[in-house]
Amino acid sequence: MTPTHRVDPTDRAVLDAWHAVGFLETLAAGPTHTRLLGVGLTIQRTADGTVQIRAEGHDTPLPVAERYGCLWTSLGTPPATPLAIPEADEPDRRLVCCGSIDVHASGLRVIENFLDMAHFPFVHTNILGAEPQTEVLRYHTEWRRDVDEVWATDCRFHQPQAALSAAGGQDTGYIYRVASPFVTLLYKTCPNDALRPDVIALFVQPTEPERCRAHPVMFLIDELSAQADLIQFQQKIFLQDRIILENQRPRLLPLDARAEIPTRADSLSVTYRRWLKEKQVQYGATQTLPTS
C-alpha cells in the first residue's frame, strides 16, 4: 500500500503554489494518475480538449494551467497563472521537455542541488566542471521581496562542455532564480548567442515528503542539435545528480541553521533555506537536527 503523507493545511506557501504534474506531450487519451503532496490525482482530457484534474475524494476539479510544455495544478488557491518566463515566448527559442524523472529524495533537496555549483567538477566531471578548477568564485545572492523570489547573480564557472552545442570549454555565466519552493530556473551563457542566455528550468512535483518527480525543461537558442540529443544530454546530467541525491541523509531538507555547516560557496543554499523557513514551508523539510 502506498503511504499517505498529506500536506499540512497550514503549509500555504506549498498548497497555494502551482505545481507541474507532467508533460503535455505525454498526456494519455484516457485517465492518468499521479500524486501531489501525498494526494492522488486523476488527470483526464475531456471531449472538448480541455484537461480536468481531480483529487481523490473530491468532485470539484482543481485549477489547471498548460504552460512551458507542462500541465500545472494546485491543491490550494494559486496565482492567476504559473510563473512568468518571458524568454519562453521568443520565437527562435526551442522548447525541450527532457522527460520526468522519479527521485527518492525531498523535492526541496532536488531544488537545492540544482542551485549548487560546488559539485560540478566532482559529479559532472568533464561536462560542467573538472579538476583542478574547482573554486566557486564569490557571487551575489538576494531575496527579492518585491516578487518574493531568491536570485543569485554574478555566478561564473569554467565548464568543459557547458551545453551540447558548445565547441569547447568556456567560462560560463550563471544567474539562478528560485520562483517558488519547488520551481527554479537557470540563465546561463549561450554558446550560440552572445547577448541572450539559454534558460533551463526545473519544475519539481513533490509526491511525498521524501519522494518527487523532476520535470526539466530547456528554452534554447540552438538551431542545429537534434531534439533527442538535447534531451539525452540533460538527462545524463540529471541522472548523475540522482545518485547523489538518493544517498543524502536526511532525505528531508534541514532548515535549522545548525544542521549543516555552510561554506562561502553555499550562499545561495543558505538564502534558499532561510527563505523557506520564513515562508514556514514544511513539506519536504525538517526542523529537527540530524542524529549521529
Q: How would you sum up this structure, described in words?
A:
The protein is α+β, with helices and mostly antiparallel strands. It folds into two domains: 62 residues, N-terminal domain of TfIIb (Single Sheet); 201 residues, Naphthalene 1,2-dioxygenase Alpha Subunit, Chain A, domain 1, CATH 3.90.380.10. Helices cover 16% and strands 35% of the residues. The chain contains five helices and 16 strands. The strands form four sheets. Strands 7, 8, 9, 10, 11, 12, 13 and 14 form an eight-stranded antiparallel beta sheet that branches. A hairpin with a 4-residue loop joins strand 9 and strand 10. It starts with 11 loop residues before the first helix and ends in a 6-residue tail after the last strand.
Looking at the overall shape, the CATH architecture of the largest domain is Alpha-Beta Complex
The percent of residues in helical segments reads: 10-25%
Annotation, overall tally of beta strands: 16
Strand content: 25-35%
Give a short account of the largest sheet.
8 strands, antiparallel
CATH homology group of the largest domain? Naphthalene 1,2-dioxygenase Alpha Subunit, Chain A, domain 1
**CATH topology-level name of the largest domain:** Naphthalene 1,2-dioxygenase Alpha Subunit, Chain A, domain 1
The overall pLDDT average reads 87
In DSSP terms (H or I, runs of 4 or more residues), the helix count works out at: 5
Cα-atom radius of gyration: 19 Å
Q: What is the string of helix and strand elements?
A: HEEEEEEEEHHEEEEEEHEHE
Q: Which structural category do the helix and sheet elements fall into?
A: alpha+beta
Number of separate domains: 2
Q: What is the CATH top level name of the largest domain? A: Alpha Beta
Please mark out the parts with pLDDT under 50 across 5 or more consecutive residues, or reply none: none
Q: What is the 3D shape?
A: globular
The termini sit apart by 31 Å
